[in-house]
Amino acid sequence: MANVITDETIEYVGILAKLELSKEEQEQAKKDMGRMLDYIDKLGELDTEGIEPMSHVFPVQNVFREDSIVNSDTREEFLANAPEQKDGMFVVPKTF
Amino acid sequence: MGKWTDGVSRLKERHRYGLMRIQDMTAVELAVAIKEGKTTAVDAVRETIARIEEKEELYHCYVTLDREGALERAKDVQAKIEAGEISAPLAGVPVAIKDNICTKGMLTTCASKILGNFVPAYSAQAICNLLRNGAIILGKTNMDEFAMGSTTETSAFGVTRNPWDPARVPGGSSGGSAAAVAAGECYYALGSDTGGSIRQPASFCGVVGMKPTYGTVSRYGLIAYGSSLDQIGPLTKDVADCAAVLESIASYDTKDSTSMRRQDTDFTSALIADVKGLRIGIPDDYFKEGLDGEVKAAVLQAAKALEEKGAIVEHFDLSLVEYAIPTYYTIAAAEASSNLERFDGIKYGYRATDYKGLHHMYKKSRSEGFGEEVKRRIMLGSFVLSSGYYDAYYLKALKVKALIKKAFNDAFMKYDVILGPTAPTTAPKLGESLADPLKMYLGDIYTIAVNLAGLPAISVPCGIDKAGLPIGLQLIGDCFQEKKLLQTAYTYEKACREAAII
């Protein structure tokens, strides 16, 4: 296996991904990711010098619209899905 | 009578709808029967629910079933049809919706624990279009969690079984939708296709499935996986239904900034049995190692059938085929890691208990809420987008995507339609695929490049293997050429039916 994923890398990726992995999950993730990256490394066989990266298949530019209200007030329906709410607001754990 | 006629053996017994049982009708036939007063939307819903109740315990196509809602709605739609207020081609026909498409007031879970209690406050644009045309939603179908998988086994709510053989998977990720159509638990269904998630289950379940050109059906209200690749599309009993459903759901939508303004969405006008002079290219790269012998024979037999109807069939080298999967998994994982950031346990969905502070709450909710495959892809995506690796992986994949797009452009200079298998094999047994994720990813080899290049493609049944499992034929078209695909598929299907009757 060419790509060896270290504990530090998995920990760092866990922070980026906002995931908390158990020890076993970490070990499995190291293996899985190493194997996938070995496979993805196949793309290195292709010369892409001077090729423009293509993020969108059609030449779509920014799509603008008038800044006018088109939706109705659905605050209650949206709040109904919140794990915790109070006085028309989402409740989150204390942040300081 | 060739082998390719076997695939439509279930059609042998078909007669004009006057002699048919309601459940054997296609969606279009049922709508006509309702309009002519031969049956009603209410009867159609009642019979379908009875069939669901009989079969669902074994197949498990649905995650949510709305019996009362569907019956209420059927009464309302029936009254409107009788009053002449709705005359759309599919008015009154019961439909099943993949559970990653938002339905106002109806549970929409993405088959994930993290969205297990999510009730959308709005409907996807495709749903609004269906409802305006008099569709009756029966419920929401099972899928791989967040559409990540090829077997419907990563669902948090249990597997779906293939109606052709309950020991096998229905394919995925739109496995519940495909199985529901195959089992007669709905007349048609909507799925979504990011890397083959409509076409591959259609192939495994012996139904028709189409991924439209990117931007044809609004993604508004489709819970995002890989935004640059995702498209909603139909799963149906036959090609005519497929054209009718696509016509019903396609629309330009200002709420989706990648929506395309098209004037040519009258897809049913392409239901013409004629392929004279049509140029069909068969990529030799699609018939190499890994392709099952019976699948290969059935697909080539289908090409021959089209040739006999006047198409010009040639073999060619598409190139870059083996690079599509690594490109796809890099881009899809990157987009998924970004799209799934929104599941944070605050605005909706699952929130963990016992946490220390905000960040720990995020991490714990996500770790407990997401399944294994979803976490695997979020991790990979976070990695390929991280500083130091972005250029080597993500940017590299976007460059290869440009090369893949160019290879298709070159092919479509010479051919109207590219023909090949939908999947390398027929449906595997339950439990065979998940043990080795990389091997499972390789099964997407023929479908994935289509999403990278934004192309339309359709899977139609083209035979049955010795194990009695359906085989799918894939037809790929250039952007906005759905009509060519539908015309080709329709011609093929008609030839099969004629041969089957003889």
Summarize this entry quickly:
Chain A has 96 residues and is mainly alpha-helical. Chain A has three helices and two strands.
Describe the structure in your own words.
The complex is a heterodimer of chains A (96) and B (502). Chain A is mainly alpha-helical and 96 residues long. Chain A is built from 3 helices and 2 strands; from the N terminus they run H-H-H-E-E. In chain A, strand 1 and strand 2 form a beta hairpin. The longest helix of chain A has 18 residues. With 502 residues, chain B is of the alpha/beta class. Chain B is built from 15 helices and 11 strands. In chain B, strands 1-3-2-4-6-5-10-11-9-7-8 form an 11-stranded mixed β-sheet, with helices on both faces. The N and C termini of chain B lie close together (8 Å). At the A-B interface, helix 1 and helix 2 of A face helix 9, helix 10, helix 11 and helix 12 of B.
The oligomerization state is heterodimer
Largest sheet of chain A: 2 strands, antiparallel
Strand content of chain B: 5-15%
- Please identify the structural class of chain A as seen in this structure: mainly alpha
The strand order across the widest sheet of chain B is 1-3-2-4-6-5-10-11-9-7-8
Q: What letter string, H or E per element, gives the SSE order of chain B? A: HHEHEHEHEHEEHEHEHHHHEHHEEH
What is the radius of gyration of chain B computed over CA atoms, rounded to a whole number of angstroms? 21 Å
Number of strands of chain B: 11
How would a crystallographer describe the biggest sheet of chain B? Answer: 11 strands, mixed
Write the layout of secondary structure elements.
The complex is a heterodimer of chains A (96) and B (502).
Chain A: H1 7-17, H2 23-40, H3 75-79, E1 85-86, E2 89-90
Antiparallel strand pairs in A: 1-2
Chain B: H1 27-35, H2 41-59, E1 62-65, H3 67-82, E2 94-98, H4 125-132, E3 136-141, H5 175-182, E4 188-193, H6 199-205, E5 208-211, E6 231-236, H7 239-249, E7 279-283, H8 293-308, E8 312-316, H9 324-339, H10 357-369, H11 372-385, H12 390-414, E9 417-421, H13 437-442, H14 448-452, E10 457-464, E11 470-477, H15 482-501
Parallel strand pairs in B: 2-3, 2-4, 7-8, 7-9
Antiparallel strand pairs in B: 1-3, 4-6, 5-6, 5-10, 9-11, 10-11
Helix pairs in contact in B: 2-3, 5-6, 7-15, 9-11, 9-12
